User: What shape does this take?
Amino acid sequence: MLVSLAILFGVQLAGEALAAGLGLPVPGPVLGFALLAVALWRMPRLAVVVEPAAFGILRYLSLLFVPAAVGIIQQARLLGREGLAIGAAVLLSTWIAMAVTVLVFRALAARAGGSAAGGAGR
Assistant: This one.
């Protein structure tokens, strides 16, 4: 368990160092996760090593929502004033992200010669 935690913290630290050292606008933990994904892809046996800590962390994932809920309660007045604008921004950005995902998928499927590019309704 200690080895798996050390690996997870190590890739997070490496991500933080990359983000800070290179001045990247990406959060360090995101870069660390990308590094871990590459490491797991290149060394599949690493998954067995990090599995104990990963499942241990996932078991308590719901606790991470507590600070977000407290933040929402603390900002209730702001949400009351700006809730419509925030909701519209969330809906619009979600729609844009979904549209871009569809376009990228169709382009990649067409490039690969897959039948998924045409869609089932055509």
